[in-house]
Amino acid sequence: MNTILFDLDGTLIDSMYVWENSIRHLYDLYHIPSDFEADKPHYFQMTYPEVLQNIQKKFMPQILMKEMIHEAADYIDSEYRYHVPLKPGVKEFIQTQFAQDMDMAVVTSNSTALTETVLNRFDLQKDIARIFSAQDLRLTKREPEIYQMALNYFQTEPQETLMFEDSAYAIDTARQLGIQCIGIVNEDNKSEMEALNVETINDFTQVI
């Protein structure tokens, strides 16, 4: 094994509450006639932009997407800049792997800007060789292209690559290339991880 790929949200950082709260805010702000808690499981398999598009199309086509993004942006940026915590064991694991000359990258649906913000706050940017942002690259983790880009960047093979990820659909995609995966399991994705029959951990204290 010579390369490790990390998802960001829900894997390296405990940030899912940020996205939930921002969507909940939109439900309240626009008086969306639906129960957020009932809708939430449907959103787990979507990226944040996909969730916004779904809400716009279903509930309020008269509202511009840029207006919805603006309403959530300040809160999200503040949380990433000052509050979002690392998952337990993350810093120790990354620093240990860096000391052993492991190539490491973040492959995320989030933006490069937010990813850099949170990695810099924890002084981890220097240990991560590259960020592959599906949002900025206009790609999706449902297709293998972004993972192939990471393999090409490091000039490595899938069999020599390990990925940590909390989204079942992304694990399924990476496995199509032959990348070994470890799932970050939580109460919301437990059944999906079991269906994938993938090795799982709760956090990185289990692999230090």
In short:
The chain has 10 helices and 6 strands; from the N terminus they run βαααααβαβααβαβαβ.
Task: Provide the descriptors you would attach to this structure in a database record.
alpha/beta; 6-stranded parallel sheet; 13% strand; 208 residues; 50% helix; 10 helices
Walk me through the structure.
This protein is an alpha/beta fold. The chain contains ten helices and six strands. It has helices spanning 16-29, 36-43, 48-59, 65-83, 90-99, 112-121, 134-137, 145-154, 168-176, 190-196, and strands at residues 3-6, 103-108, 130-133, 161-165, 180-184, 199-201. A six-stranded parallel beta sheet has the order 3-2-1-4-5-6, with helices on both faces. It starts with a strand and ends in a 7-residue tail after the last strand.
Radius of gyration from the CA trace?
A: 17 Å
Described by strand count, sense and barrel closure, the largest sheet is: 6 strands, parallel
Number of strands: 6
Roughly what fraction of the amino acids lie in strands?
5-15%
User: What structural category characterises the helix and strand content?
Assistant: alpha/beta
Note the gap between the termini.
Answer: 16 Å
Overall pLDDT: 95
What is the helix/strand order?
A: EHHHHHEHEHHEHEHE
Extract low-pLDDT stretches.
none
